[in-house]
Amino acid sequence: MRRRDVRFMRAFVFASALSLAFGAEVGAAPQRVASLNLCTDELLLMIAAPEQIASVTHLSQSKAESPLWRQAARFRRNDGSLLSVAPLKPDLVLTMGGGARDRVRIAETLGIPTLDLGYPGSMADIETSIRRVAKALGREPQGKRLLARIAMLKASTPQRQPDTIWLGGGGRSVGANSLASEWMALAGFRQRALPSDRVTLEQLISKPPEVLLRSDYRAGEYSGEQRWLNHPLARKAGGARVIPTDGRRWTCMGPAMIAEVERLRKVAR
After folding, report:
1. Which of 55, 85, 149, 258 has the most other CB atoms within 10 Å of its CB?
2. Would you say 65 and 38 are in contact if contact means Cβ atoms under 8 Å apart?
């Protein structure tokens, strides 16, 4: 971080400390929450009250990246850096794993409250993140409503689980024992185990699945991955039933997946 940025951050922290000291109640729910990650954007937008949201990332305001882009467009955008939200004087910053660790350490040094969530690897992780964010925001009833919807999906999981391949650009798929496969099972699909979680055009023809769950992520773009996905063999997959799915929701595989699972159940009937 450059010297002038450090001076700016120190000045910001001093001003924030005065603001909190004179204007905030101890234990009060945060009122200026900023998110620095597309996946924490999703949690914030689905749990927080609108007046609590100070900023979300530019990615969540992109129609190509987030199904919540219209909702996200109501708030200030940031570039995922702590510096980009500092002028907003957030009283809570949401981050998620990876490079966010460095931001958390800087925020802690400067006295900015943070909630750092781990990358989810299972449905249990998603449920934990929902609980943590809801508690941090003082919005536990809203968190419980999302958890209740997941519980209802689990309790009503379709018994029939046809052989399915989730298909993304370039032949990318998902693991048979992954978070993605858990969401698929709730929708009524059993993800086929594939070497390196990929499938070839030859495999789609020689051993087609019963269902091809085809991601429409960035479907209108011209790229090598999209050319592969638009190949006639990938589009028909040897007579498999092709069901499109909103690929944006599979990026984070968080609570935005609830509505997609509900939709897929209706489509698959």
Report:
1. 85
2. yes
